[in-house]
Structure formats: C-alpha cells, structure tokens
Amino acid sequence: MTHDAITLRGMRFHTLVGLLPHEARFPQPLELDLTVQLSLRQVGETDSPRVLLDYRTLYQLVAETVGTSHHKLLEALCEQIARKVLALDGVLRARVAARKPHAPIGGPIENVEVVIERVRDER
Question: What is the DSSP string of 19-86?
Fold first, then answer.
C-alpha cells in the first residue's frame, strides 16, 4: 500500500489560547498547519485515492475546532484536531503544528510551536 499526503499550511486564526489570565480574555493570533496521510489502493497501473478528501472539509474541521472557546494548551488543541481528522474516512495519519507568535516568553522570539503526530488506531 502507498500513501499520499495533503497539507494545509499557515491557517490563521484569532482565539483565546494560553494559561495566563490575560490570555483567557484577549484573543491572540494562532497559526496552524495540518498534514494528513491518505490511504491509497492500486488500481491498474496508477494509484487512485480510496476516498477523495475535500481541502475545504479539512479547513472547516480545524476552524470549528479552534472556534472561539478558550484553549489553555496548544497541545490539547492539536490533539482535538488530530482526533477529528483521524475519524475521516481514508485518513491514516495526522500531523498538526500550532504556532503562537506572541507567547509570553520574556525575550525576543518568533513563535512557540507545538507539533503532534497521531496514527489511526486500526483495532
């Protein structure tokens, strides 16, 4: 079996994210990347997707998950996105990267990034 991937890179949102009190009150910019690995099957001499996955479906899933609620941890938000994506037909693996450019680090920094990769449980 072979695999193809779809990546949505640089999705931008403003949402409540972080553990500090001001992070629960003021939306901040958040940038996300999503890569999904799809299952393929051999069809004659060419590979053909087992399912067609509309890019808009992936974007909408991420946008709805980010929503307007408060996300205390980037890791938890990434986990929610990965779980929902892995529930889609034909998705074998999900990689979610979330970048927070205004992380309160106390020094110059471009952003903080959390990356998770999850695989569909085939049990």
Answer: SSGGGGTS-EEEEEEEEEEEEEEEETTEEEESS---HHHHHHHHHHHHSSSEES-HHHHHHHHHHHHH
pLDDT digits (tens, 9 = 90+) for 41-89: 544 445 555 557 889 999 999 999 999 788 999 999 999 999 999 999 8
Please report whether residue 23 resides in a domain.
Answer: yes
Give the range of the structural domain holding residue 72, as residue numbers without chain letter: 3-96
Residue 116 included in any domain: no
Domain CATH code at residue 10:
3.30.1130.10
What is the pTM assigned to this prediction?
0.86
Nearest to 57 by CA among 122, 3, 96, 6: 6
Number of domains in the chain: 1
Domain presence at residue 12: yes
With b for 16 or more beta-carbon neighbours within 10 A and e for fewer, the 1-18 pattern comes to eeeeeeebeebebebbbb
